[in-house]
TrEMBL record:
The keyword Repeat does not apply. GO terms for molecular function: RNA binding; rRNA pseudouridine synthase activity. PROSITE patterns: PSI_RSU, S4. GO terms for cellular component: cytosol. This is Pseudouridine synthase. It comes from the Bacteria. CDD domains: PseudoU_synth_RsuA (cd02553), S4 (cd00165). It comes from Macrococcus hajekii.
Length: 232
């Protein structure tokens, strides 16, 4: 990989900015100063430093975010704040959200550079559960639990996969689905005459939203957390 691309991919700066750093002699490869941006490095074995700080090689990036309301699950938008806008230090990475949460929905959202990971998590055939906490404008009863278990039919005729309802209180429930259709949870409740007034994703796969991750906060994921998401 070109040295300037390696540095840009690891969030050191734009391609133009890292070229300037390289030409100023701020970058070393295996302790030798390299001033050519096109210099080829072995990202897995070479020791690359910028201003004396070692740049750790990361093949892929995985970030967990406690998404706040009012932010859209996109990489860029001219009108609204995106989840990528919330993490400027990762703006030079080609990250994307794994699925989406509606603008007014909070909770667990993962961003990554790993397209294969996204496919594994989002494909209904992989049976990766997504659990949401929902507050409603009415009460859920046992009949609703059974309807969700059989598979709700949406207004457009789509038959959802079986889902699980856990009644925490009559108007405060948890719903677990394996799909991610547009506004799916809201539309499922609308199909039985209820409206969602608050929605928060609490879990993906076997990974719970970390209790110490406040709304709007994010961090890199551990290997254990990445595996928990994919484990079914």
């Amino acid at each position: 990989m070109r040295l300037d691309k390696f540095l840009a991919n690891h969030g050191i700066g734009t391609r133009t900015e890292v070229k300037q750093l390289i030409k100023k002699g701020a970058v070393t490869v295996n302790d030798d100063i390299v001033k050519k941006p096109e210099y080829k490095v072995n990202e897995a074995s070479d020791v690359i430093k910028c201003n004396g700080t070692t740049i750790e090689y990361e093949k892929e990036l995985y970030i967990i975010l406690n998404k706040p309301q009012g932010v859209i699950s996109a990489t860029e938008d001219n009108l609204h704040t995106t989840v990528v806008d919330l993490m400027p230090e990762f703006s030079h990475f080609n990250i994307h959200p794994v699925g989406r949460l509606d603008k007014d929905t909070e909770g667990l959202l993962i961003l990554t550079t790993d397209g294969q990971f996204s496919h594994r998590v989002l494909s209904p055939s992989k049976h990766v559960n997504k659990t949401y906490r929902a507050k409603l404008d009415g009460e859920v009863d046992v009949e609703a639990v059974n309807l969700f278990k059989m598979g709700i039919t949406l207004e457009d005729g789509y038959r959802c996969m079986p889902a699980q309802l856990n009644i925490l209180s009559p108007d405060n429930i948890e719903v677990t689905i394996q799909e991610g259709k547009f506004h799916q949870v809201k539309r499922m409740f609308q199909a039985i005459g209820l409206n969602v007034i608050y929605l928060k994703r609490m879990r993906m796969g076997n990974l719970d939203l970390p209790a110490d991750l406040d709304t709007g906060q994010y961090r890199k994921m551990t290997i254990e957390e990445i595996n928990l998401v994919q484990h079914v």
